[in-house]
């Protein structure tokens, strides 16, 4: 067993004429096994509701390069409280360390919007698939993925991994060696302290192989639908 240390002194940063932010729920230390999954929670209040980000070992870029890390920021019932969750799947030795949540709010806030949503694809069973999503907003929004209107199927699929690109606020969902349970309807969702936006549905179809002119050539065929983001 190994200890995942979490520092208690969460960081708060505010601009004048705004209230807070205040960290009201700090992440707790956890002990886990290699290969298991862990979840850290952080809650902050402020006006406007703050955006929450995460830091590992005082390095804000360490988590962005980890494909097994997922962030979800969700506003609670009132407009001044934000809750953030940090998920780490299939924990490795490199994941152990000190984690902090950081809360910020500021002026010129902008509701998140999907700039480019995922596109429909047709792939053969056993092939790889990549879905991408780009969002904008201020504070910078987070992006997470759902399949068939639920996030659980993705978290339980060992062949699916999400890689965020913090520089362009773009998220890539990679599915390796697609199996039957991988086919379905995918959407990306983006959140910040101002609101939430969800992309249109992108369908991952089973491709079909058929012969052309009897010469042994093959082609992948499937149904493609337009995908539009909305806020």
UniProtKB/TrEMBL annotation:
Record keywords, A-Z: Disulfide bond, Immunoglobulin domain, Signal
The UniProt record lists the keyword Disulfide bond: yes
UniProt xrefs under Gene3D superfamilies: Immunoglobulins
InterPro entries for the chain: Cell_Adh-Cytoskel_Orgn, Ig-like_dom, Ig-like_dom_sf, Ig-like_fold, Ig_I-set, Ig_sub, Ig_sub2
Domain of life: Eukaryota
Gene Ontology MF terms: axon guidance receptor activity
Family matches, as Pfam families: I-set, Ig_3
GO cellular component: axon; neuronal cell body; plasma membrane
Name listed for the protein in its UniProt record: Ig-like domain-containing protein
Protein source organism: Pocillopora damicornis (Cauliflower coral)
Domain (Ig-like): residue spans on this chain: 21-115, 126-202
